[in-house]
Amino acid sequence: MKKQEKVLRLCIMAMLTAVSVVLVTTIRFPLIPAANFLEYEPADIPVLIGGMMLGPIHGLIILLVTCAIQAITVSSTSGIIGFLMHFIASSALVLVVSLIYRKKKTVLSLIIGLIAGSLAMTAVMIPLNIIFIPLLFPAVTTETVIGMLIPAIIPFNLLKAGINSVITFAVFTPIAHVLKKYVKVEKK
Fold first, then answer.
1. CATH number for the domain whose boundaries are 3-25+37-182
2. Residue 114: which of 158, 83, 152 has the closest Cα?
3. pLDDT value at 188 more than 50
4. Which residue from 20, 63, 154, 178 lies 20 to 30 Å from 124 (Cα-Cα)?
5. How far is Cα 40 from Cα 164, in angstroms, rounded to an integer?
C-alpha cells in the first residue's frame, strides 16, 4: 500500500472515530420506558461504515478507540466492564457485517450482513449482561438479569442494533460508489 493510501486510510479512520465519539456523547436516550437505564446511542454507525469501507480490522480499530474514549468520558461510571461490554458486543456487529459485505459488495449482502450482525450483537449481549451486570451493580443478582432478558435486554439490543443498521444502510448505500473512487477497499 502506498504511503498516500495509508495516510488517507488513517485520516478516514480518525474522522469516523471522531464522528462516533460525537454521536455517543450527544445522542443518548432510553428506548424502553420500563428500562430507562438502557440507553440508545448511535456510535456504531460510523464504525460500521469504516468496517465496510476499509475492512473488518480497521472497523475494529475505530471501535476500540471509540470505546476507550467513551469509557473515560460519558460512561466513566461503568469503567472497564462497560468498555468490555461495548467493545465485545459492537465487535460482533461490525465483524459480521463487514465480513459478509466484504465477500460480495452488493446491496443484498449488505442487508444480510446488517441483519446477521444485529442478531449476533443481540446474542452476544445475553451472556455479557448475565456475567457483567452483577459485577457492575452488586445489588443486581444474576436472577434479576435473567428475568430482564425477554422484557428488556433482548428487545433493547435488537432495537439498538436494528436502528443503527437501518441508518447505516440509508447513509452507506448512496455514498458507497463515491467512496470507492477515493479509497481502495481492503483485499479479500
1. 1.10.1760.20
2. 158
3. no
4. 20
5. 9
